[in-house]
Write a structure and sequence with these properties.
Layout lengths: L20 H10 L1 E5 L4 E3 L7 E7 L1 E7 L5 E8 L2 E3 L1 H6 L6 E4 L3 E7 H10 L1 H27 L2 H11 L2 E2 L2 E3 L3 H9 L3 H13 L10 E3 L3 H8 L5
Antiparallel strand pairs: 1-8, 2-7, 3-6, 3-8, 4-5, 4-7, 9-10, 10-11
Helix pairs in contact: 5-7, 5-8, 6-7
């Protein structure tokens, strides 16, 4: 059951941090509550983007399927955050399929309300522009890495960048999902993990988690040209 102060939860979403309370209340009132269980689809790639999905709680992964049937994974996001803002701007449909990795609590804000907010709030507009610029730069880096770096280097970089707890990185969907994320086969990922374990940079995978033993050496593997 919602309380009269639940609208304050929007303050934790980076996109809305600078908005005054009045605007947050109006957004909350205009939004539609949604809940998704683990494994359910929040949105499907290519479907019309009529609402901005604001993930308040939970974790979701984004993936896309190529015309050849290959799954490409873009990563995972934890709430609170706003998902797939690009799709609302270009009206070309959702850029990915979003799958709940844990139970998710969502508020769906109508596109018209979101677009009006972009027109009215310079802070929100600036945030979105900076985010799009960062995404474009990150995509360029990923494409460059995919062309120039071997799988082991990309894997090392992923292990260093992934959220860690007590030095352990969670694989989530296992080697298959990691292979899709890196754009290689599962066999290639398995061999790269084996080499890193053999050289003492990581420990064996236990319970879907990998222990990073030598982050400094792992950083060298992530940037082989710097040695």
């Amino acid at each position: 059951m919602e309380s009269g102060e639940d609208w304050r939860r929007l303050r934790d979403v980076p996109l809305f941090t600078t908005l005054p309370d009045t605007d947050l209340r109006h957004l909350w009132q205009a939004s539609v509550p949604r809940r998704y269980d683990t494994g359910e689809l929040l949105r499907t790639q290519g479907a019309p983007a009529d609402h901005l999905l604001v993930l308040l709680d939970g974790r979701t992964a984004a993936s896309a399927t190529t015309p050849g049937g290959r799954v490409v994974r873009f990563g995972a996001w934890n709430g609170p955050c706003a998902l797939d803002k690009v799709a609302l701007l270009d009206r070309a449909g959702h850029t990915a399929t979003f799958t709940a990795l844990a139970p998710c609590t969502v508020r769906a804000i109508p596109r018209a309300r979101f677009m009006a907010l972009l027109d009215d709030s310079a802070a929100v507009r600036t945030y979105v522009l900076r985010l799009l610029a960062a995404q474009a730069r990150a995509q360029q880096h990923r494409l460059t890495d995919a062309v120039t770096l071997p799988c082991e280097a990309r894997l090392a970089a992923w292990l260093l960048d992934a959220p860690a707890a007590d030095g352990h990185v969670t694989l989530g969907g296992g080697q298959r999902e990691l292979a899709d994320l890196l754009g290689v086969t599962r066999v290639t990922v398995n061999r790269a993990l084996s080499r890193l374990r053999r050289d003492g940079l990581i420990g064996p995978a236990e319970g879907g988690r990998i222990k990073v033993l030598a982050p400094e050496l792992l950083a060298l593997r992530a940037a082989p040209d710097s040695r």
